[in-house]
Amino acid sequence: MKLSMPLMYSGNPRAAADSVSALEKAGLDTVWVAEAYGFDSPTLLGYLAGRTETIELASAILNIYSRTPALLAQTAAGLDNVSGGRAILGLGASGPQVVEGWHGVPYTKPLGRTREVVQIVRSALRREPLRSDGIFTLPLPADQGTGLGKPLKMLTRPERPTVPIYIAALGPKNVQATAEYADGWLPMFFAPERISSVWADALEAGRAKRLEGLAPLEISTGGMLAVGEDVKGLLDLARPHFALYIGGMGAKGKNFYTDVVSEIGFAADAERIQDLYLDGHKKDAEAAVPAELLEMCNLVGPESYVKERIAAFAEAGVTNLQVTPVADDPVGLVARTKEWLT
Q1: Is residue 224 within 8 Å of residue 300, measured between CB atoms?
Q2: Does one domain contain both 184 and 272?
Q3: 32 in helix, strand or coil?
Q4: What is the extent of the structural domain holding 266?
């Protein structure tokens, strides 16, 4: 199992990025850089490429609406080149709030769009002339443009003809599609003991149709990491994050994260969290997040307990454990955890 972590920052992300070289030396395998509606991800990943040597550099995630498939391919190829073949392209549909509210693009056909984006990105990285006749039309016909467009292939030769593509997916149809054609899967609120009740059927159906030539599906997920005899109280630090996504990342009846938590077994709690959050009672929503849910989705407790949680994630199929270390010495904690994985 590989070990990874998201790049966590508030304010200036450069300071957080500067810490990655120390984490790399401690054994961290992958760093994931998010993009919502703050700083963009590729700029920080390019900065990291110049300050690291071995760590995998991954977007988590770039949405499939604000950039064309060809531009996503250019970004993947550019990052892979400057990093010497260490890029991972994490993609996802994001949600209507960001896509329509920030980018002003209609949030339509997320499943079909994701599939086509992956197909076009892979074609571009193979330096094939780009052609598409689906949601995306390449080249654009005369009745939609000047008529001067023609199939083009990437001018420069990529470092690798393939860059691993991970998909952030939660719903059953999206998870099934991810298991069918993506290199990796980025689930959220992953409770290892409940995977059979939430995603097992979708994963099995997707793997049954997995594209020929692809390696087995990688799974990257995890949670807060804190080790000690009296650290359970640190789980409260995760409450704002859980409440934000369960309660605020979508409207009533249209929140993917609420649905997942409901399927894990906390339907009544998820509904209460969402009602409180949408009514403006954010602190009450945070308090309503069940302690059992926090424990399931994180790795917080004595060393023996954390090792049991690591084993549970591995048993559930996780191949790249994502952790957010909470400690006075996060680099040292990463080094210890890496030893436990090996």
Answers
A1: yes
A2: no
A3: strand
A4: 230-297
Kindly state whether residues 104 and 237 are assigned to the same domain.
no
Give yes or no: residues 250 and 116 share one domain: no
Residues 135 and 145 in one domain: yes
Domain harbouring 85, CATH code: 3.20.20.30
> Domain check: are 206 and 250 in the same one?
no
Core vs surface per residue 162-183: b (16+ CB within 10 A) or e: ebbbbbbbbbbebbbbbbbbbb
CA distance 124 to 157: 10
Query: At 307, is the secondary structure helix, strand, or coil?
Result: helix
Mean pLDDT of each 10-residue bin along the chain, 342 residues long: 92 88 97 94 96 97 98 98 98 93 97 98 98 97 95 98 98 97 97 92 98 98 97 96 93 90 96 97 98 97 98 97 97 98 88
- State the pTM of this model: 0.96
Q: Based on the structure, what is the number of domains in the chain?
A: 2
